[in-house]
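Running this now, will post back.
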Amino acid sequence: MKWHYNLLSKFKEDVYRNVINNNNKIRQKHFDFDDIDESDWWWIIHNKTNYLISTKSSFPLKIKAEPVKKYIGSEIYYVCSETTPMSFKGEKYHSFKELVNEFASLKHTEPKYFLLYKLIFLTSLLTRINVRVCSPSNFGKDSVIKIGGDLLNNCISISPSSMASVEYRLFSRVLALNEVSLISQEEHNFVRKFLLLCGEFKNLYEKSTRGSKLHGTYDIYDLKNLSLILTYNPLSYYEERNKANQFFDMVFDYAVLDRFPAFLFKGSLDMAQFDVQDRYDYEYYRKITKSIIYYQENYEKELHNYDVDWDKLNLKGRHRIVFKRIVDTIDVYSETEQEFNELVDLLHSCYKNYWYMVKKMKTVTEFVEHPQKTEKKKYKELQINDDFAVGKYVEEIDIPDIQNSPNQMVIPNMEFIRNKILELCNNDEIMIVSIMQKLGIDEKQFDEQLNYLIRKAEIFQTKPGFIKRLN
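Update: finished.
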């Protein structure tokens, strides 16, 4: 198998062994040396060695002259006064369709959904997006990120234990945070603020106050090229382990959910394929890598500009922005308008099926291939498992039109909203986002009435994201 991790690791070692890029940066430091003119440095860790490189240097780079060994306190640093900028020139070895099909060409039980996920990942390389990807644990979420990281050396997937562990990786081009909802309660607010900032496509991030100086991370980060992918398992995964309260939508509030459109995928990798390793082919990986770089610089020139019925998709705000960027990648990939429409419809169904899944937090509607054709019909709900389309019929429900999603429907009667919030709260603790979904109102309107009820001591917040009615 050509995408075996051993082969990819060897390619990464061959290409990037002596290259220092933004991922190696830790933080800025100021040191004055008698024999060196520079005083402002990047502290770099490369191959487990501390380097000091001038802040005037352009990354990625190679060290040109022999570094000067310096002792600073108990630490040893190698001061690099001369470096050579490195540039990786893109070349078009593949059509975009050939590239997508060849990249991470892994055997999968649901190849069309795996193709969509690859297109989302490649979109994150071509432009900036913020998305949530929900799928079974063996779908291949991390595998695609790792392949991209080994080829380009600027993509990484982590399961963060703290905000500081996230900050270490903010110089990446693509950062995937796996199961971020499991982060500790004391770190939750720092992560939430970071997600809100990224979700708004802000360009600068100032490090969190907790632990960053201790861990030596940089003060200000430039995020203008950072794509953020949040990955986790379907709700059933947590329910089966009696940990439904750790599901992403149960941990983060509507403000975060609204900034990261979510897609629900199914299927799994054929794990037997990893038992066989092909012969190492440096040129194969080199050409794939250079083709990706080429399209990073030129993909807009390859657009077919197929028509999109945005009224039918009925997306608003940041969800539409991100969806449009993924659709552009699908446009470049598709050789015909029919192929384009089928992939866009499938992407939209993944978007809507996620919303169906979280609507009741217990069941998910039968997987809908083309929901725009069936919005007015009834579907039987299925108990979800890791394959999430197999289970026992429970009940028939009306499938809501997507326009009734929480960020697109406005209820003007404020007293009505307050009464409905109190009615839904009853005497039980309830998740704020579930109330918002049931009412179908925008975040600003909801927050106004929620804060009103809190001021009037009608309800109180039991913990982040949850409220309860006062008796």
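The radius of gyration is 24 Å. More later if anyone needs it.
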